[in-house]
């Protein structure tokens, strides 16, 4: 706890930063558009790989409690599991 006999310094609030202006150069706007198109193309190509992985992870998380309750072990096939 700070001693009460010292005067505390009051700091004024920081000034709010000015808004960033929109770029006026056409090259910057076109480069931004190309970047967005490249990201969309990458997402389209990667969807064949990423979607099955996400689906598998979601299924694993959903089915994990059922496997735990059934008594299945991951040490191979057992009579309790099948």
How would you describe this protein?
By secondary structure, the protein is mainly alpha-helical. It has a domain of 25 residues. Helices cover 55% and strands 0% of the residues. The protein has 1 helix and no strands. The protein is flat. The mean pLDDT is 80.
Rg, rounded, reads 29 Å
β-sheet strand percentage: under 5%
Cα-to-Cα separation, first versus last residue: 64 Å
Report the sheet with the most strands, covering strand number, pairing sense and barrel closure: none
Q: Count of helices?
A: 1
Uncertain runs: none
What is the percent of helical residues? 40-55%
Mean pLDDT: 80
In terms of structural class, how would the helical and strand content be classed?
mainly alpha
**Global shape:** flat
The total of beta strands comes to 0
The sequence of SSEs as H and E is H
In summary, what is this structure?
The chain has 82 residues and is mostly helical.
Key terms:
82 residues
Present the secondary structure layout.
Layout: H1 26-70
């Amino acid at each position: 706890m700070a001693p009460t006999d010292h005067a505390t310094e009051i700091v004024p609030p920081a000034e709010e930063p000015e808004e960033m202006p929109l770029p006026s150069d056409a090259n910057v706007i076109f480069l931004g558009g190309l970047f967005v198109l490249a990201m969309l193309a990458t997402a389209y190509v990667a969807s064949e790989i990423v979607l099955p992985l996400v689906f598998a992870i979601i299924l694993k998380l959903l089915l994990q409690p059922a496997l735990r309750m059934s008594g299945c072990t991951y040490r191979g096939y057992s009579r309790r599991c099948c």
